[in-house]
Design a protein that fits this description.
alpha+beta, D-amino Acid Aminotransferase, Chain A, domain 1, D-amino Acid Aminotransferase, Chain A, domain 2, 9-stranded mixed beta sheet, 8 helices, 26% strand, globular, Aminotrans_IV, BCAT-like_N, transaminase activity
Length: 264
């Protein structure tokens, strides 16, 4: 089942022109959200924030906006069957909404964490990194490479070796009694969950430190995690690279600050 161009389709295949830029170049922008409380208007679902994310790419790309009422209608139809929705917008304003279930073993990963691999090859650097486009090949390749090495996530880096983000989310590190996360200016995706967590930390009077993650900064972290709108916050219990393996606790006291947002 999927919602495409104003209609609900009971199928697992879609028909596109062989000249469609979405097919040829990955020319779409998308956002992935998790529906909380069976409502698009739940603060945790962050519907408006996800729409703003799409608009923030449509404007600089000079693509027309979709029919937002129709996009919401499609999302409401799809969320009756799926807790996770991916909303894609085409260069001509068409919308495609597909659904999926929550990841398997999500609760276990939230509790015990996952293993990550530092993807050092320039092959894994995303194009247009501050936009979530359909051309997500480099991040997907990084994740595949990580999985071949027994890891569940990949950490992307820049040309100087600074850590940027994971293949599916934003990075968080605890040091000096605070959470740190790389700033948008270094070339990362401005995740919706990242923004929600930053706001939550501000309300707790524990503002996050937004600084580039140089080797010196990374060496001082006591705990690590990554976030996105589907998995929420996942500890990084082990980070593997060519030179070393770092171990981190999955039950660090700092996680309670990040997870405060989910407690209402």
């Amino acid at each position: 089942m999927f919602f495409y161009n104003g209609n609900l389709h009971d199928s697992s295949t879609i028909e596109l022109s062989i000249a469609d830029p979405a097919l040829l170049y990955g020319a779409t922008v998308f956002t992935t959200l998790r529906v909380y409380e069976q409502s698009l208007d739940s603060p945790l679902t962050a519907w408006q924030a996800h729409c703003r994310r799409l608009k923030s790419s449509l404007e600089p790309f000079q693509w027309p906006e979709p029919d937002w009422e129709r996009v919401r209608e499609g999302a409401e139809l799809m969320m009756a069957s799926w807790p996770v929705l991916r909303i894609s917008i085409f260069p001509d304003g068409r919308e495609l909404i597909i659904g999926r279930i929550l990841p398997q073993e999500l609760a276990i990963r939230q509790e015990v964490g996952v293993k990550a691999w530092v993807a050092g090859d320039s092959l894994f650097r995303r194009s247009l990194p501050t936009h979530k486009t359909g051309n997500y090949l480099s991040a997907w390749l990084a994740l595949q490479a990580a999985q071949r090495q027994g890891c569940q996530e990949a950490i992307l880096i820049d040309g100087q070796g600074n850590w940027l983000e994971t293949s599916t989310g934003n990075l968080w590190g605890w040091r000096e009694g605070r959470w740190w996360t790389p700033p948008i200016e270094v070339g990362i995706l401005p995740g919706v969950m990242r923004s929600q967590l930053i706001n939550c930390l501000n309300t707790q009077d524990h503002p996050a430190i937004l600084e580039p993650w140089t080797a010196e900064v990374v060496s001082g972290f006591e705990a690590l995690a990554y976030s996105n709108s589907v998995v929420e916050v996942i500890p990084l219990a082990e980070v593997f690279s060519e030179n070393q393996t770092r171990l981190y606790p999955s039950s660090h006291k700092g996680f309670s600050q990040l997870r405060q947002i989910f407690l209402g």
